[in-house]
Amino acid sequence: MSADPNERTIRRILHIDMDAFYASVEQRDDPSLRGKPLAVGRGAARGVVAAASYEARRFGVRSAMPSGTATRRCPSLIFVPPRFEVYRAVSAQIHEIFGRYTAIIQPLSLDEAYLDVTHAVATYGSATAIAERIRADIRRETGLTASAGVSYNRFLAKLASDQNKPDGLFVITPRMGPDFAASLAVERFHGIGPSTAARMHRLGIRTGMDLRAWRIEDLRGHFGKAAAFYYGIARGIDERPVEATRVRKSIGTETTFLQDVHDPAEAAAALARIAAKLWDACDKRGVSGRTVTLKVKYADFRQITRSRSQIRLVANERNLLEQGLLAMQPIFPVERGVRLLGLTLSALAACEADEGQKGLFDETASTVPR
């Protein structure tokens, strides 16, 4: 890995991030909501904010926040139910715009993506010019705004897109990159979550400059395989390419109950509905998986997962439900109610035709406090 971005072929990477995407779509489609604090989600006691407008964010309302907390922070908050079919349609429009400029697109979600425009620069003059054109096309064709980050790698492009939100653009050049990374608090680094940041703080690492002072051998002693990534980004280095085709590693679905569930029969019935929905999603994609993971969240928000892995792919919906029920059996009777149940199928591959396949399962369990 080169320590100097100028010593290798310099990529031109964009990170395009729609501004408050779900909420902005709702405000676009209903003019009466414009300029008002808005949350997309269910306003019921068990609801969660899926997205918040910038007007709501000023009150501290954020995505994934319980609806009750959001309402206490912003009593005038307006809730609207999500319309995912609309968001997907708008996202498809946006990705069609991306495709006019490059074929190397890595979606991260409905509202953000990396684009490698290295070769497109010969046509459009610069990566910054391409970012401006994309933002203008999005505004003209969807009525929405997007923020863009332009840099020579993914890590810095994503940081750059956050700099001038909303409706902004920021460029981090190869000359700027190392010092820009060094100036930031480690919490700002994408790829360093709250728990890792806390561990770094305990080691006296609070900024990119602090991180840069550590030898990679010492970082490995504390962070294992992730040390090389941390060592690089502290110097503005990220060699990961934009991946035009990402292989999906898992498919999952879950449900949150209106009232906590204590009855195993009620939980089993809910799990059957979850398994049916999950298998339908797998069937549409022509995939199955070898690992079934049950997710359980209790009334106190403590969460456990139980996984069962087999040699062959899960054969059908019945097989999926059987393994989910086997994973769920040990949790009943419960001392506290179950708030949420979910199933995930991972180790995915193209479906096999044999519906009678059986596999020996090994069960593992992990507990994650929330």
UniProtKB/TrEMBL annotation:
Main localization of the protein described in the UniProt heading: cytoplasm
UniProt entry keywords in alphabetical sequence: Cytoplasm, DNA damage, DNA repair, DNA replication, DNA-binding, DNA-directed DNA polymerase, Magnesium, Metal-binding, Mutator protein, Nucleotidyltransferase, Transferase
Compartment(s) of residence: Cytoplasm
GO biological process: DNA repair; DNA-templated DNA replication; error-prone translesion synthesis; SOS response
Superkingdom of source: Bacteria
Enzyme Commission designation: 2.7.7.7
Site annotation Substrate discrimination: residues: Y22
GO molecular function: damaged DNA binding; DNA-directed DNA polymerase activity; magnesium ion binding
Entry-linked PANTHER family: DNA POLYMERASE KAPPA (PTHR11076:SF33), DNA REPAIR POLYMERASE UMUC / TRANSFERASE FAMILY MEMBER (PTHR11076)
NCBIfam families tied to this protein: PRK02406.1 (NF002677)
Protein name: DNA polymerase IV
Underlying gene: dinB
